[in-house]
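Hey, weird one. I pasted the DUF3080 family protein sequence into the form twice and got a warning about non-standard characters only the second time. First submission, copied straight from the form history:
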Amino acid sequence: MKCKLLFIALSTVLLGCTPAPSDTNKTYTERLAKVFNSDGLSIEALSMLPYSAFDKPKSSYTISVIDLAKLGHCRVSTHIANHNNQLGKLAKPSEQFKYTLNFIRHAQACIDDERTPQDVQQALELARQEKLAQLYPMLTYVFTHEKELNQFFTLTFSEIKRETSKGEIQALEALNTLTSLIKGLDEPNKANGDMLTAALEKLNNNSYVQSLITSTRVQIAWNHTTTAWLNTLELEHRVCPVGKNKKRAKILNNVFQKFYIQDIQAYQSQLAKRLHDIEPHFQTFTDKFGHNTYPNLVTPLITELKQSAKSHVYWWQNFYKVCKVSP
């Protein structure tokens, strides 16, 4: 029993001490700075991403109690009644969207039913047309209020794991489902609102996308900070003066090869690949909801990650050129 407890304790310590992927950046800068008897670098805390919650669209048309009583032959009557009860009024945004989608389908069936009085048909048609026009605004309301979706705009302490996780697989499945749902809204009578529920279930307590976005922003910050510090070094005076030994230059090269080339560069490639995996989905969300309402977070991150890495590598290319040290 004691051995078992000891094993659990050791496992906990080991797991707790596992460094985050970007911690390599800290070691990298410490080793670089040590060459000049300086302290390592640090990055500033990340700022919050711009985010606005979109209000629920307001309805101008309602079905009166009197009209509802005339719809006993229609499924839409039960649908409206359930929505108007206490539980319906407290429904989550995603359930309210599903009500809107189902109302469009059920209302059309009732409008087409010859047993429906003409005045009620007209009321249903007005309400249906309004809800058709509000489908995308309603879904935007869902995206900016359901915690599983608005978490994409928030920071997290957990960084992305290098290995593929269950969370990553489920997050990609959820994003695929959401994209299919959105594209299917062009034919609302065929759209399936339960797809939204399925996607939210896979994103519940799943911080993969949030961690990916945060990890990328952290890496970009390290790239900018490290490159800015390197740019303060005068290569021909402090690093590799003409006619003197190249000890410092050789040590810098070893540090760059060991930490950046062998580790950080591969980590950045992995971040870029994963961002490319989710980019089409976020672009779809932005295209349908509007750039100002739901900005695409991913594409600018990919651009900045690649540009910051390119600037960093450019400094080293110049280093090799000036100091004439073999990589």
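That's the output from the first submission. The warning seems to come from a hidden character in my clipboard, not from the data itself. The chain is about 65% helix and 0% strand.
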